[in-house]
Write a structure and sequence with these properties.
- With 317 residues, this protein is an alpha/beta fold.
- It has three domains: 13-103, no CATH class; 112-195, GMP Synthetase, Chain A, domain 3, CATH 3.30.300; 198-310, no CATH class.
- It contains nine helices and eight strands.
- It has helices at 13-22, 24-27, 39-59, 63-74, 85-103, 112-125, 175-182, 216-230, 253-261; strands at residues 133-140, 156-163, 191-195, 198-210, 251-252, 266-275, 292-293, 299-310.
- The strands form three sheets. The protein has a three-stranded mixed β-sheet, with helices on one face.
- Helix 1 packs across helix 3.
- The longest helix has 21 residues, at 39-59.
- The chain starts with 12 loop residues before the first helix and ends in a 7-residue tail after the last strand.
- 19% of the residues are buried.
- The model has no long low-confidence stretch (mean pLDDT 85).
């Protein structure tokens, strides 16, 4: 593939002459004769002609120049050893393509996207580490080791990591490997923190009204499995593109209504309650049950359990 050369300066002879003459009233107002017979105009045209030739040469980058550029990029002297000019040109074009691709490889972490890509791709693909990360959430200007997700900490970056399924437990001591991997890649002025997600424990209680000929034994396991999949931190199936509950996403009672109402065999749903880990309703300041449970940016859902009461359908004989 031959890459098109950039035009470093596309001004023509006419552009240069016009630009120079336009500066005369600014630089020397007394000069009023701008006719081609004027000695100064003749000099401007001569210099414009010389400049146009120079610009043409600037845009013609030779193979020797490319070899010198590679010496600067690679830190070593590169010489064109091929005799044929065509072979030298093809070789240089191939190296240009390879160099441009290498320049796009992330080896330094600056943005949050850099950190997340380095963890999910470079770290996971490395054979030197046994810990494999399934999900990572980067939070800029946050120190989650000392503060919370709502407190700003300039110069700090926190990475909330979730390992793969078979490594969900007792993995915190292995995070030091990830720290060592990222330490030489981060900026010198950045303080990096790698933490586990904070799980908000909830349980779901709901009353389901079945359709005709649907029993409690058929409906309850189906509802439990669907709710578990909906709140799963990993491998969430048809929900959340299979990646798990999004970090920091609020829980809406209306979504749970729809989730259960769409189940095969459910006629309608009554009385959904979201309980905390102590079995109490999430309540607002005035004591009313919340229709939305807020999660911080580093939080996921831990579904402790679900309880479904299946009642007779009063509309079915």
């Amino acid at each position: 593939m031959t890459l098109p050369l950039p035009n470093l300066d596309n001004r023509s002879y006419a552009d240069l002459v016009e630009e120079a003459i336009s500066q005369i009233p600014v630089e020397y107002p007394e000069w009023t004769d701008h006719n081609p017979t004027d000695t100064g105009i003749i000099l401007i045209e001569l210099l414009a002609w010389l400049t146009e030739m120079t610009l043409y040469q600037v845009n013609q980058v030779s193979d020797e120049n490319y070899a010198s550029f590679f010496s600067l990029l690679e830190g070593q002297k590169n010489e064109l050893l091929l005799d044929s000019a065509e072979e030298r040109h093809k070789s240089l074009q191939s190296r240009i393509k390879e160099t441009l691709l290498n320049l796009r490889v992330r080896y330094r972490a600056v943005t949050i996207e850099d950190y997340e890509q380095l963890v999910l791709e470079d770290f996971n693909e490395s054979p030197d580490f046994t810990l494999k990360i399934a999900r990572v959430k980067g939070l800029a200007q946050r120190d989650l080791e000392e503060g919370d997700a709502d407190s700003f900490a300039p110069g700090h970056i926190s990475l909330v990591v979730v390992p793969e399924n078979d490594q969900l437990y007792n993995y915190y001591d292995k995070l030091s490997d990830l720290c060592k991997f990222l330490e030489p890649k981060k900026l010198l002025t950045t303080s990096l923190h790698i933490v586990e997600p904070e799980y908000v424990s909830i349980s779901i209680e709901a009353t389901l009204i079945p359709k005709n000929d649907v029993t409690k034994e058929d409906l309850t396991p189906k509802a439990e499995a669907e709710v578990e999949l909906f709140f799963a931190p990993l491998n969430s199936g048809k929900y959340w593109e299979g990646k798990g509950w999004p970090f920091g996403r609020s829980i809406y009672v209306s979504e749970i209504y729809k989730l259960l109402d769409d189940l095969e065999g459910v006629d309608y749903v009554e009385d959904i309650f979201i309980k905390d880990e102590d079995g109490n309703d999430f309540e607002s300041q005035n004591g009313e049950p919340l229709s939305e449970v807020y999660l911080a940016d580093n939080q996921l859902v831990n579904l402790k359990g679900s309880e479904f009461t299946v009642e007779d359908n009063p509309f079915v004989d």
